[in-house]
Amino acid sequence: MSGVLPPADIALTEADAERAFADMLDGEPSDNEIARFLSDLSDRGERAEEIAGAALAMRKRLIPIEAPDNAIDVCGTGGDGHHTLNVSTAVSLIVAACGVPVAKHGNRAASSKAGAADTLEALGLDMDAAGRTAEKTLAEIGICFLFAKNHHPAMARIQPIRQKLGKRTIFNLMGPLSNPARVRRQLIGIARPAYVPIYAEAMARLGTERAFIVSGDEGLDELSLDEGNEMADVQGREVRMRRVDASEAGLTHAPVEAIRGGDAMHNAKALEALLMGAPGPYRDAVLFNSAGALLVAGVVESWSEGVEEAGEAIDKGLAKALLACWIDTAK
């Protein structure tokens, strides 16, 4: 198969998918061949074996960092089109303030107005320095930002092809599965509810201590306050599907429009207000997702306990203080 990608109408085994993506990442096929393969694969729908194989190829080519054994990641795959305020960014700060190390893997905005990096920069964090000092800040204060570009050099050739295609491909699913800190516990949001069991099976194939794969019914790539959420609880090789909604965490339902975001400065001001204790749907959305992350981390036993712990981290000023410390340390 070296240098020649298979037709996408053929279901690939995990091993075949790993070889195909290894070829792509190593630069063997032509740009047109890669574009054709990614587009066709997206059109027919990626299978769990193919997602797992692609992730294995990426994992073998990333630049890793040292991380605490109990580190987690909280992120979404993006591309949901809802342009919400930065929920996973706030969750990362709050969960880290609760004593759980967070190795946040991400990048600047691709389809939204303000990604995690853009908003953190607007808050005063030097993102280039945060990338260089990621291992240090994770060890010393329990949080870091892992810029994808710093840890996945093999993606340099793929990015222009993806941009030219202008459509969602399997690589939109790869970020959470290829965290450079090699975290074993994750809260992952994806923008396609019907894909939750497929993605969860891929995660189970790759091996994990525990992960929640979630998607709001409206296609939100995080736990939604609206009608409800599809959720897969992955523990080792076992996947359990369930439904979860805001009421289970003692929170009020709200439409996605209630947490609509804006540009980086707009989202940064909202996050600052949140850390100061501002009430409302944004706080509730962050508390809901923080509770999920704390459950995954194994430090709480229920959604309501997670909401309580996260709320205390905000109201006692712990999350705000952590952000200030991060800004000071990442230099």
UniProtKB/TrEMBL annotation:
Enzyme Commission number(s) from the entry? 2.4.2.18
Query: Which residues does the annotation say bind anthranilate 2?
Result: R162
Which sites bind 5-phospho-alpha-D-ribose 1-diphosphate? 76, 79-80, 84, 86-89, 104-112, 116
Question: Does the record's keyword annotation contain Transferase?
Answer: yes
Q: Sorted alphabetically, which InterPro entries does this protein's record hold?
A: Anthranilate_Pribosyl_Tfrase, Glycosyl_Trfase_fam3, Glycosyl_Trfase_fam3_N_dom, Glycosyl_Trfase_fam3_N_dom_sf, Nuc_phospho_transferase
Name the top EC class: transferase
Which residues of the sequence carry a binding annotation for Mg(2+) 1? S88, E222
Give the Glycosyl transferase family domain ranges: 70-319
Matching Gene3D superfamilies:
Nucleoside phosphorylase/phosphoribosyltransferase catalytic domain (3.40.1030.10), Transferase, Pyrimidine Nucleoside Phosphorylase, Chain C (1.20.970.10)
Gene Ontology MF terms: anthranilate phosphoribosyltransferase activity; magnesium ion binding
Task: Please identify the protein, giving its name as recorded.
Answer: Anthranilate phosphoribosyltransferase
Q: Which organism is it from?
A: Aurantiacibacter atlanticus
Corresponding gene?
Answer: trpD
